[in-house]
Amino acid sequence: MPIRLEQMDSQTYAATQSNQNETEAVRQKLVECKTMVEKLFQQKASLEQTILKGKREQPCSQDEEEHHGEDSTSDNCDVHCITCGLPTPLRTAVKHFEKCFNRVS
User: Fold this and answer.
1) What pLDDT score was predicted for residue 37?
2) The pTM is what?
3) Are 88 and 94 in contact (CB under 8 A)?
């Protein structure tokens, strides 16, 4: 019996090789997933820092808003709609976004 076991151990079988290949592929995929998760955690931390910075900011006073309002009207800025992609004047952008969203949904 021990001789037969030694013979079995010395031979390589196709099924065993196939299983080893699949196991190695799964391990490689696992490593890739772990690195992706680490990247996502780093992005999450960065976004949380950005949110905290935004929460710490002080709102503009009315004088500053009027000053910025004058600048934006003279520049005549356009914003592209997320839904339809058309350029929309900044003053009417929110209404346009709502209409486009309601049209699509």
Assistant:
1) 97
2) 0.44
3) no
